[in-house]
């Protein structure tokens, strides 16, 4: 019954070990998949970061080119305004420099003139004043006809109006460009701030991913250690079974690559054969009734027949290549005294039985 319990416990342990190994393999595969997913996410984040940087550089270049073009247009407008202003100033100088009064011819009668001067001056007529102004403008422009004078003044007025309009338009464009530049600057600052925040967030995420990878690797190492320990335990169990079988059948040791279940079956068959040799023991009933009864390893009844006879010190004829010689015929006292060789061989068998019981005790302790 003890060997049935050993077999049952070994089967349970093997099932547990197999299930735990399968579970560990599944967890290792899952961790590898998680590591691959995290690595893909990291690569995608790096690609997105590089693409965002490229876009920001392109936008900065576009903004700089727009600002350069606007500044160039503003400078050209200022230059045009200054040129037109200088032309206007030249025209005004020419007009006002040529606008001097013409010398009047002296009157024939000086006395009459003196008398007229002594008279109080009367204001000139409005038409006469306009005519005098027109003559001054005509002399200033150097034109010969009235239409030409009017054409020149109209063209000057149109140029002045056009210059004023260009000035107003250039000022409006300048203000608009300044507002656009301020908006672009604020947008650029926002992009830079977002890039810095994104870089910080990605660096934190990268650190978390690296920590997860480290933890997963540590778990993998621990799982490998557990698997090694369990495989070592399986090896110890198999070694104990082989030593048990070898102690039971020294003449027929188990093979090195033989399965543990096969060894257990062989041990069971051998024990059934031993139990069947006892006439008073019914094997099936004992197996059914005493399924959970603990077995004392030190009990001598579980030993084979020759070993029990040695332990109880009852002389039993032993089979071997060199049997002991039978005692010589004589009295009863002489028949009870064994020979020296016989006693030596029986002592050796007792020692072997004791050592085998100790080995059995050690293997049972390991399986528990």
UniProtKB/TrEMBL annotation:
Residues 7-94, 160-226 form a coiled coil. It comes from the Eukaryota. Transmembrane segments: none annotated. This is Uncharacterized protein. InterPro entries: ODAD3 (IPR033192). Residues 99-125, 306-341 are annotated as: Disordered. Signal peptide: none annotated. GO terms for cellular component: ciliary basal body; ciliary rootlet; ciliary tip. Residues 318-329 have a biased composition (Pro residues). Keywords: Coiled coil. GO terms for biological process: cilium movement; outer dynein arm assembly. The keyword Membrane does not apply.
């Amino acid at each position: 019954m003890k060997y049935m319990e050993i077999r049952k416990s070994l089967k349970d342990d093997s099932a547990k070990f197999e299930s735990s190994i399968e579970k560990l393999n599944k967890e290792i595969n899952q961790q590898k998949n998680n590591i691959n997913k995290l690595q893909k996410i990291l690569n995608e984040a790096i690609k997105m970061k590089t693409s965002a940087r490229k876009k920001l550089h392109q936008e900065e270049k576009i903004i700089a080119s727009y600002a350069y073009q606007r500044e160039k247009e503003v400078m050209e407008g200022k230059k045009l305004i200054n040129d037109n202003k200088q032309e206007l100033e030249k025209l005004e100088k020419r007009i006002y420099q040529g606008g001097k009064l013409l010398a009047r011819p002296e009157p024939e009668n000086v006395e009459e003139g003196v008398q007229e001067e002594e008279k109080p001056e009367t204001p000139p007529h409005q038409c006469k004043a306009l005519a005098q102004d027109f003559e001054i403008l005509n002399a200033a422009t150097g034109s010969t006809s009235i239409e030409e004078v009017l054409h020149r003044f109209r063209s000057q007025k149109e140029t002045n109006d056009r210059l004023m309009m260009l000035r107003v338009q250039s000022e409006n464009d300048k203000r608009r460009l300044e507002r656009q530049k301020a908006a672009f600057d604020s947008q650029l600052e926002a992009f830079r701030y977002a890039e810095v925040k994104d870089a910080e967030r990605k660096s934190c995420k990268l650190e978390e991913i690296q920590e997860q990878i480290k933890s997963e690797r540590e778990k993998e190492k621990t799982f490998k250690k557990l698997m090694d320990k369990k495989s070592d335990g399986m090896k110890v169990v198999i070694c104990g079974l082989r030593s048990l079988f070898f102690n039971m059948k020294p003449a027929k040791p188990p093979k090195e690559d033989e399965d543990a279940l096969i060894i257990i079956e062989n041990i069971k068959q051998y024990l059934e054969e031993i139990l069947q040799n006892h006439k008073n023991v019914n094997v099936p009933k004992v197996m059914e009734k005493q399924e959970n009864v603990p077995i004392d390893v030190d009990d001598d009844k579980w030993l084979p027949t020759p070993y029990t006879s040695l332990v109880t010190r009852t002389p039993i004829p032993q089979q071997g290549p060199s049997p002991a010689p039978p005692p010589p015929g004589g009295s009863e006292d002489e028949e009870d005294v064994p020979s020296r060789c016989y006693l030596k061989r029986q002592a050796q068998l007792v020692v072997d039985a004791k050592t085998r019981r100790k080995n059995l005790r050690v293997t049972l302790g390991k399986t528990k």
